[in-house]
Amino acid sequence: MALNITGDAEADALLDQSPFALLTGMLLDQQVPMETAFAGPAKLRDRLGSLDPATLAAIDPEKLAEVMKQTPAVHRFPGSMAGRVQALAAAIVSEWGGDTAAIWTQGDPNGAEVLRRLKALPGFGEQKAKIFLALLGKRKGLQAAGWQDAAGDYGLDGYRSVADIVDADSLTRVREHKRAVKAAAKEK
Are residues 20 and 28 in contact, defined by beta-carbon separation less than 8 angstroms? Predict the structure, then answer.
């Protein structure tokens, strides 16, 4: 099933074709709208000519920050997020030989192992790792045994996260769910 997250067919196609782009979009998904975050990898590729992890890991950090600041900015906080993107790229190169998909394919891991591997990445805490695991399972055909349990609530059917977005209606439903969760948290 083709991804439909950004509202931009070219940006969504990159997310479909490039595991690193998808992982980078998830990394950027904080303090900006989901569409902005997941469109970020396409902006980086267009501006740099490549979205290869080795290229990003080796680029001058100041140059990457400048590229992220170009209008329209890749992220609301381009300087700090440039560092996170570069750290993620470096981890993919050093720990996974530049093969992002190896995180969820190497050694035929189960869902709990994929979750552990995701949480070990720079910028990926428990929640972000669970959401990405659900995205892999629901939208990218991940067959790892137990992925739904490892993803927690994000592995369930519903409209909880980016993993549940397939069109404009589901995007609206995910946003409504996030608002309801935030409102409930404020009431506590």
Answer: no
Q: Whole-model pTM?
A: 0.95
Count CB neighbours of 33 within 10 A: 13
Enclosing domain of residue 98: 9-152
Q: What is the pLDDT of residues 91-106, one digit of tens each?
A: 999 999 999 999 999 9
Name the burial class of residue 186, with classes exposed (0-12), middle (13-18) and buried (19+) by CB atoms within 10 angstroms of its CB.
exposed
Residues 6+ apart with CB under 8 A from 106: 96, 99
Q: What is the domain count for the chain?
A: 1
Q: pLDDT digits over 131-184, tens only?
A: 999 999 999 999 999 999 999 999 999 999 999 999 889 999 999 998 898 888
* Cβ atoms of 186 and 175 closer than 8 Å: no
8 A C-beta contact, residue 147 and residue 155: yes
Question: Is 41 contained in some domain?
Answer: yes
